[in-house]
Design a protein that fits this description.
The protein is of the alpha/beta class. The protein contains eight helices and seven strands; from the N terminus they run ααβαβαββαβαααββ. The chain is globular.
């Protein structure tokens, strides 16, 4: 069953096997299509996500990039945080991992470890990292999965550790919102059908984005885990993010 045939199932599109298939199939074209589809804003938002990371100066640091995809956030991360010792990239898609390693980051091979697994089943150790970043991975989870992800973030951060996550969002209240939704739901599928020989996986990404809403609810889940959280809107709410840190002592 292809992606379009499964759009009406709210549960199936968040099944890890289904998500893996979507991103495995679109991994080769992901970088170029996502840049074109966002008019380059995804790159800007990745940089802003890293800039929002409230990491305290210390030597050295280890972090997780959750739902790491093709690793496009890493150049921003290594420029912004000079004291990085290593990054563990967690992603369910073997295609995205392979694309990250072979195309973008061979020169960082010693600093980047790959963990190909559903992040919610990754069993990341408690208090095992100094920072967590994630760019454009939140949309692939439903509300129940977001609760589990918030627990994982809180558990795996060391006291004082920082986090920053960003996601494309529904800019409710913005007068250009209808054009934004037209772009996601009509134009992006048309481009995909025309230039990618009828593939429908990028159309699924648009569906994930529109279903997601924004990161406010996830921010509240992180607060419920005892984390200090700041919620941000980017470009009239076309992307939203949460950032903050884990207190040194329980709240």
């Amino acid at each position: 069953m292809d992606a379009q045939a499964r759009l009406n199932s709210a549960d199936e599109i968040y099944d890890p096997v289904f998500v893996k298939g979507v991103f495995d199939r679109c991994s080769k074209a992901y970088i170029s299509i996502s840049w074109i589809a966002s008019f380059g804003f995804t790159e800007r938002w990745r940089r802003q996500c890293v800039e929002a990371l409230p990491l305290q100066p210390q030597q050295p640091v280890h972090g997780y990039d959750l739902m790491a995809g093709t690793g496009e956030v890493w150049p921003h991360l290594f420029r912004q945080v000079s004291q990085i010792r290593s990054v563990t990239a967690v992603d369910i898609s073997s295609g995205m991992h392979q694309r990250a390693l072979t195309r973008l980051h061979q020169h960082r091979e010693r600093q980047i470890k790959f963990l190909e697994v559903d992040v919610l089943k990754s069993h990341l150790p408690e208090d095992s990292c100094d920072f967590i970043v994630s760019t454009f991975g939140l949309k692939t989870f439903n509300a129940t999965q977001h609760h589990h992800l918030a627990e994982l973030v809180a558990r795996s951060l060391r006291p004082g550790g920082a986090f920053s996550l960003i996601e494309a969002s529904d800019p409710k209240g913005w007068w250009l919102r209808p054009f934004y939704l037209f772009h996601l739901k009509v134009l992006l599928p048309f481009v995909e059908r025309t230039f990618l020989h009828g593939a429908q996986d990028f159309a699924m990404i648009g569906t994930y984005c529109s279903n997601f809403g924004d990161a406010a609810a996830f921010g509240e889940m992180l607060r419920a885990q005892g984390l200090e959280v700041t919620f941000r809107r980017y470009f009239f709410g076309c992307a939203t993010g949460v950032s903050g840190h884990k207190p040194h002592s329980p709240a």
